[in-house]
Design brief:
There is one protein chain. 74% of the residues lie in helices and 0% in strands. It has five helices and no strands. α1 packs antiparallel against α2, α2 crosses α3 and α3 packs antiparallel against α4. It has 118 residues and is mainly α.
């Protein structure tokens, strides 16, 4: 099952469960994917990588909106955006935490034999 199909199925499930915030977030995401597919010379089916790029853009947009709403004293709108952000982040690959990243960096440094000498 493609990521696009998963998003569609999750939208239908959210509609049946009457989860308004999730429905809104997934409808906007689906619209962004459709907009991506029809942009350019001819219509094309978005690959999973392209869908991930669209999700990433939507996540960034939500983060920017949260900052703007917080600065503007609109905590009610910021809370809604945060809820949508959590929903959208579920479609992104898991991010490494600091500890995992540090282990990878140390491993790479030892593999290439780098030292701190300048």
């Amino acid at each position: 099952m493609s990521l696009k199909e998963k998003i569609h199925e999750d939208l239908l499930a959210a509609m049946k469960a009457k989860e308004d915030i999730k429905v809104g977030a997934l409808r906007l995401l689906k619209a962004s994917i459709m907009k991506f597919e029809v942009s350019g010379d001819k219509k094309k089916e978005a690959s999973d990588e392209e869908v991930l790029q669209v999700v990433g853009r939507e996540v960034k947009q939500r983060k920017d909106s949260i900052d703007a709403y917080r600065k503007g004293g609109r905590d009610d709108l910021a809370v809604k955006e945060e809820a949508e952000l959590k929903i959208l982040e579920a479609y992104l690959p898991a991010q490494m935490n600091e500890e995992e990243l540090e282990k990878v960096i140390i491993q790479v440094i030892s593999q290439i034999g780098a030292s701190s000498k300048a």
